[in-house]
Every structure is written in structure tokens, then in C-alpha cells.
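ARCHIVE CARD
Drawer: 12
Card no.: 0347
Subject: one protein chain, sequence and derived structure
Cross-reference: see card 0346
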Amino acid sequence: MAPTPHDPASPAPRRRRPWPWLLAWMLPALVVALFGFGLGAYLYLVVSGETFTGTREVDRPAQDGSPSFSWNLRLTDRVTVLLIGTDITLDHRRRIVPVARADTLLLAVFDPGRDRISVLSIPRDTRAHIPGVGTMKINAAYAFGGPGLTIRTVEELLGVRVDYYVKLGPQSFVKLVDAIGGVEVDVEKDMKYTDTWAGLYIDLKKGRQVLNGRQAEGYIRFRKDALGDIGRVERQQKLLLALFRKMKQPAMVLRAPQLLRAFTENTQTNLTVGELITLALFASRLEPADIHTATLPGTFAPGYWEPDWPRVRQVVTSMVYGVDPEVLAATRVEVLNGSGIPGAARRTAARLQQLGFHVVRVGTAPQRAEETVVFDRSGRREVARLLADLLGKALVTTGASADGVDITVLLARDYSAHR
């Protein structure tokens, strides 16, 4: 059956609002986090009709094995959040049609172990395999399957598990920047461009200045230069840090009501309010130097941004996991299928190889296993923990010696629940 485009305007289930006093008390930290991991800077044009729900589920929602959030609102595990900004598609009569693409994709990694937030920008023209659809630009994944298919496409592209997602509504970026009173940016050159069809009017002069919401939107949407979308991504990252610095100012507390209204009116996410607050508290104690940004390495190709896989592996393993790629390449791994699911070991091995592991053996376990286990013989604790994270918080234990193998991955029936 041919894939059916996703309808981004479908209603989201509503949930009871949190206690107003609690949200007001926690809002300053929440606001810092929202900007700190890039919502304001990147997610700016989404179709109408979406509201914040806190329990919105995607095709493959976060399940058991996703990072846990402690009751004391302290982030204890690494968390990955996919930030999605979609475009607006118009028909020949300039009417909005219910088919949108992911105009902006970022993978934000909240890492309490290293006290940092890493943000990896994925250009919208990146060539990627979309499960069930085929190979095309990654921004088409949203049109065919909404957040769920977009998540699976990013996971397959990067070899990284995505725990949660956040998507904002129409003109969100403009409203958020206006709500904080603008943002100071050093515009690197004159920018002038008009697209009446898309309603885009950009007229910026070179130099340091405070941009209002509409001007800031033009700054990050401008693509008419030699670098095209890659230049746009670089400006997004530059504005991200400017927004984070602005949100650290004490005066922003007074603007909390406007920010809350701008955010909640346009947000769709499978993070609960408590989880958002936990991420907010973590982000609020960081400094701009703790925010690390990068763009998916690649090269320009006809119609595509072609990933440079050796460099992609280096960026992913370093930014997401904090592990040296050379260490992964020197770790000999075998993957055994004890889950009873045909092809599970092969698919897992391919994912590990994409990250840079040296997979030396793929096979079937002698018997079914109830719990997925990582048997570590290498003594490389950070590598074993990385594998455990990839497999949905699998158990790590010391394994008996095996010829030519440093780590054995035993896939069990519980692993199938996470993939």
C-alpha cells in the first residue's frame, strides 16, 4: 500500500492543565530550557490547530527503557529530544493544505553526566532512507508519517535512539522573540529577499542590533547566499546562543506570562509538564559555553545534502555519547539474537556498525532470553554503557572470556518492546 501523507492538523488529545501556581513558580527555569535547547530559535513555522498536551503520543512513543525522570525533578539520565519545525504547503489558490514537511530538524541531547546540552542540526535536504517510503530528502518524512515516521527516520540515519519530540505551531518563533522583547544579534551582512508567495519579506542591514520577532525570523530563514540551507543552519545556531544568553537575564522572569502563552498555544509534545520542568531546571544552571552545536557533516550534491558518514559517526559518538570514535572502532562486538524476532540481530548489528563499532559476529543465541544483556570483557565502561543506552537501558555485566570478542550483546524479548 502506498504511504499516505500525514495530516498535521489532526486534533491532539487534551489533558487537564497543571496547577497555575506550580507552573508560575517553575516558569522562569522552564523558559530558559525552552530556549536553551533551541525551541525558539528553530521551530518557527508549523500548521495551525496544535496545542500543548503533555501526553501527545507519536507512532513510536517513548516507552519503558526511555530515560527516567526522578520525582525530585533532577535529571539523572541522558535524554534525547527531537525538535521538529514544519513548513506550510499551499495549493495553487494559496490555501493551506494538510501536508507539511519538516522544515527544521534538530536532535537535542541533555547530558547530566557531562553537564551540557548538545544540539545537532540536520539539514532539511539531507538524503535519508524513510522507512516504508524510500530514499529522499529527510524533510518528507513528516509529510508521510508525522512525528512518528520522522523519529524513526532520524534514528535510522544517525543510529541514535530518540526518546521524545517537541513541535511548535504557526508563527511561534515570532511570538516567542517578541515576548522576550527582541534579541540582540550581529547580522553578518545585508540581507534582502522577498517571497510574496510564502509571505516572506527580509530587509536587514549589517551590524549588531536588536531584532524583533519578524526580523529574527527573516534572519534565520534567509537562504539566498552561497551556502544556502547550510548558511541558514549556521545562523539558527548563532541565534540559539543569543536567545539563551537573553533568557539567562533576571528581567526575563517578568515576561513569564507572555512566554507561557506563546509556548502553550502552539506546542505538541510527548513530554509531560513534570519532564519539561526537569529539563528546564537542568538547562537553567548551564552557561552558554555548555551549549554545543554542530551541523550534520556532509557535502552538496544535486538536490541533496549528502552525509559524510565517517565524519557523521565522529560527531554523533562525540556529541551524543562522549565516546572517542577510535575506541568504538577498536571494540569487537558480537550480537546474538535471543529475542525470537527474525532479523533483530542483523538490524542491531547494522546500527552499531553505522556508529563505528567493529561487529565481528552476528548469530542466534542457543535459547530464548528474557532480558537483554551487554556482556563486557573489555573493561571499557563508557562503551558498555553506550551499548546499554542504545538497547533501551539493557543490563551490563561482566562476561566470560570469548575468542576474538570484547563485548557480547544478547537481545531478548524485552528488547522488542523498545524498537
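Annotation on reverse: Residues 20-304 form a domain with the Aminopeptidase fold (CATH 3.40.630.190). Residues 328 and 357 are 5 Å apart (CA to CA).
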